[in-house]
Design brief:
alpha/beta, globular
């Protein structure tokens, strides 16, 4: 999942640092991104894979990279102990002006991240494969500045993404789909859905299309990395 999100940002012209504590995982991610960038260039046109790859850096020093980042996208294991340790360390290095987006689907990240991070922390739930499916579900925290979530949603929408803003966190469960399709994910509860963000200047460039019905992906795959 992380490598696909990184590819979206790199294709949009942004410098991206992809980090992992496992060097082998980083090497696999680099190979996957290079392959996907080549495929997208052939099928969709646009930049050559070499230009996209030039915007990517792969580093084991994740917190060092986060120190100067405007946006930190967390895509780590859905384990409480790992999440808590990550956010405790992140709180000591990340800029107060940075936006932190957790790609969580099971854990309510606001229950596990230090409260000092809550004003700049949101949930941004991508769907697999993230480099193709543009749906992103966004959940903010009550302490977020009023325009944080709408501006981020407008950013994604302006660049072809399909953001859906939720009023509160809803866990996901697997649901069978007709033969010939992968298993999909739908919210355990659809209550609390809000609208998409309005227009506005965008700092993050993402693109693509996905089949949706009432804001819920249909006939799409969903798997935790």
């Amino acid at each position: 999942m992380g490598h696909a999100i990184a590819l979206r940002f790199a294709r949009g012209g942004h410098a991206v640092t992809l980090t992992d504590v496992d060097r082998d995982a980083l090497d696999r991610a680099e190979r996957s991104i290079r392959r996907l960038a080549g495929t997208q260039s052939e099928q969709l046109g646009g930049e050559a894979p070499e230009s996209v790859m030039a915007r990517l850096r792969f580093a084991e020093d994740g917190f060092g990279a986060a120190a100067g980042a405007e946006l930190v996208v967390e895509v780590i294991s859905e384990r409480v102990d790992i999440k808590r340790r990550f956010y405790e360390e992140l709180a000591g290095v990340v800029s107060p002006s940075a936006l932190i987006a957790s790609n969580t689907s099971v854990l309510d990240i606001f229950e596990h991240a230090p409260s000092v991070l809550h004003p700049q922390l949101i949930m941004a739930h991508y769907f697999v494969p993230a480099h193709i499916i543009p749906l992103v579900e966004i959940v903010g925290h009550p302490s977020n500045p009023g325009q944080l979530v709408p501006q981020f949603a407008a950013c994604l929408s302006a660049l072809g993404m399909k953001p859906v803003v939720l009023k509160r966190f809803a866990r996901f469960h697997r649901q069978p789909y007709p033969a010939g399709h992968q298993s999909g994910a739908v919210p355990a509860s659809r209550r609390g859905r809000g609208g998409r963000g309005g227009a506005g200047r965008c700092r993050f460039r993402l693109s693509g299309r996905a089949p949706c019905r009432d804001g819920v992906p249909v006939q799409t795959g969903f798997h935790r990395a």
